[in-house]
Amino acid sequence: MTSVYQLVGQDGAARAGLLQTAHGTIQTPVFMPVGTKATVKTLDPLEVRSAGAQIVLSNTYHLHFRPGDELIAELGGLHRFMGWDGPILTDSGGFQVFSLRDTIAKVDDEGVTFNNVYDGAATRYTPQLAAAIQANLGSDIAMCLDQVPPAGVTRRELEVAVRRTTDWAKLQRDAPRSPGQLRFGISQGGIDPELRRRSVEEIAELDFDGNAIGGLAIGEERDVMFAVTDEATAMLPEHKPRYFMGIGDPEGILEVIEAGVDMFDCVLPTRTARTGSALTWEGRLNLRNAQFARDQRPLDEGCDCPACTRFTRAYIRHLVNQGEILGIKLISLHNIRFLIQLTDGARAAILNGTFAAYKSAALDRLSA
To answer: What's this model's pTM, rounded to 2 decimal places?
Structure first.
């Protein structure tokens, strides 16, 4: 396949690039806010854009059941449906299918049968269906359905998941797509070096538009996770985008960028906002705490988001403690902006050849 990714700078393994999609060019490395059900929680798409987001992620599993991918197609596709004119990546729903393990009735080489979380009905999910749903949604990047084993499974179970993930990827590689839709393969293998290597090599050989590292950040030791990421990215094609699935803490973002990852997503900024916590250079601030009752400073000095340029910690604490939606909204905006600024700074440092210094200074500030 013709590469849609252009490498424009490199500092060590860290990369800066351009990813071409049907709805615009993405500058990488890039943090992708998660809009699971076709919305980044509490935020209007224009607000997400104003925070600097270039691309958002939505979920195939949830949109298939509610409101239905065929309905979304009938209404003009996911972009029109959710009022977002930029690129969208859709996860295949594999993580949801396999993380809700109590609902699984049967996994076999053709797919998985489970009781869905909406009405409990027995549901059959296959690689071909995952591809067809995403074609209906019309996302810019469609992810393959993979088998996601939990941390701590036996090597035999992990080996079966690797084999199935490759077999399923073969079924999806040339499945029908919406116009201009890219498709990414996903490697599994957990933290087993041999199985991870096998999976990365097999998925890369299928020549998808991009390659994702899956099956990590699910409970394994962080140092081990980053070591596996280093090894996996080193084996991936340089001319294809690389996506680490599910990381969004500042330290983690810097680590995977250093390893050569181009794309990453996480619900962390909006999920922590709903608990009243803000991401800052002072660490996470729990705005429910009484220490902020008279604090007239912004959430983070130097941040240009609406929460920081217009409101004080004291006011946002008041909103959070009174259960006002505006409090969650403002912290969500700030948290997304904070991670995007961190990532944009990393990109600039890569282009300037100063990424190691940037990472070190950022980690020092975060741990001060």
So the answer is: 0.97
